[in-house]
Amino acid sequence: MTDTPPDIERLIQDVLADLGFDADAGEVARRVRKLNHGLPAEDEFAVICAWLGRTGLLHKLDQHQIPARSKSDFQVPDILAMFEAGGPLLIEVKVCNDRTLSFKPDYHARLMRYADQMGLPLLLAWKHYSLWTLVDIRHVTLARKNFNISHGEAMRQNLLGILAGDVAFKLAEGAGIHLDIAKEQLIETRPSDDGFEETWQMRVTGVHFTVGGGAVRTDLHPETTQLLATWDLESFEEHSPTHIRQSFTVGAEGIEFAHRALVCLLAWEKRADEPTNWRTLLRSPEITRSIAHFGAALERGLAEGVVHHILHQQPVVTPDFMC
């Protein structure tokens, strides 16, 4: 492995416990790599909660149960968490791109039985495409055969904001970054279907930022400018005989969530071909390099005119453990 994890001894020990000490070295290496890759959904959710800033403690629960017969009665959830607004809580993590998340009755019963025995609330963290919700599992209700919850209901009852600190936000229309590029030397001219194409040697001569409405600001905080990396910006160019102005600006539509903004910031900070290693981020003292506290950056961006509004979602039903 190119990057040796600091807990390599634990990973090897776990693999050898499953395979035995006579296992093929190649198979051991493959299984260690797989363990180091981790369980992406659980790791991603854990990193998001840590980054949002209101998590006091979060750790995975070891799901190797003994005695073996206990598996017919209990299903150990994925995570134990404590937030500033409540806890300890149990969290089961699921990934499902269908509009309805479904549990078989026996699986649901084993989860509930474990939570009831521990005397702890049980929440469901659901990743639907790239959007996370966190709901009280008591909103998962029995349909004809299985226990179901729709994505719409999960959004209505979402606790990710009041527990972990997630928010929805909209950047101001017209905010953006603008590059002035000088045409220094014509390299090549070639015919095209629309006339001709030119290749120039060019140089960036100026960079400036605008806030809502397109007004130029020269005193924006560096973290405010980084908020633009979380948005799907519209691009356009203005040409003159000597220069090109390339602009990337916020349009009229759209809304984003803080937890999805984290994914954008991480993509901005790494190479394009480098996948996000959530397990590595779990051990990192600094999750992002560009914005230290996203909530504070949004509030500052609102004051500086780059953020248009910030929405703090409340669930339709506040769970009993938060009342």
Q: In short, what is this structure?
A:
This is Restriction endonuclease. The chain is of the alpha+beta class.
Distance between the termini: 49 Å
Query: What structural category do the secondary elements indicate?
Result: alpha+beta
Largest sheet at a glance?
5 strands, mixed
Count of DSSP helices? 10
Q: Please provide the count of β strands.
A: 16
How much helicity do the residues have? 25-40%
Inertia-based shape: globular
What does the model show?
This is Restriction endonuclease. InterPro entries: Hjc, Restrct_endonuc-II-like, tRNA_endonuc-like_dom_sf. Pfam families: Hjc (PF01870). By secondary structure, the protein is α+β, with helices and mostly antiparallel strands. Helices cover 30% and strands 32% of the residues. The protein contains 10 helices and 16 strands. It has helices at residues 8-19, 25-37, 40-52, 105-118, 151-156, 160-164, 222-226, 258-269, 278-282, 294-304; strands at residues 55-60, 79-83, 86-95, 100-103, 122-128, 131-136, 141-142, 147-150, 168-171, 176-192, 195-210, 216-217, 234-239, 243-249, 256-257, 307-311. Helix 1 (8-19) packs across helix 2. The chain is globular, with a radius of gyration of 25 Å. The two termini are 49 Å apart. The mean pLDDT is 89.
Keywords:
alpha+beta, 3 domains, globular, 323 residues, 10 helices, five-stranded mixed sheet, five-stranded antiparallel sheet, Trna Endonuclease, Chain: A, domain 1, 32% strand, single chain
Compile the SSE list and pairings.
Layout: H1 8-19, H2 25-37, H3 40-52, E1 55-60, E2 79-83, E3 86-95, E4 100-103, H4 105-118, E5 122-128, E6 131-136, E7 141-142, E8 147-150, H5 151-156, H6 160-164, E9 168-171, E10 176-192, E11 195-210, E12 216-217, H7 222-226, E13 234-239, E14 243-249, E15 256-257, H8 258-269, H9 278-282, H10 294-304, E16 307-311
Parallel strand pairs: 3-5
Antiparallel strand pairs: 1-2, 2-3, 4-8, 5-6, 7-8, 9-15, 9-16, 10-11, 10-14, 11-12, 13-14
Helix pairs in contact: 1-2
Catalytic activity: Endonucleolytic cleavage at a junction such as a reciprocal single-stranded crossover between two homologous DNA duplexes (Holliday junction)
Protein name: Restriction endonuclease
Pfam family, one: Hjc
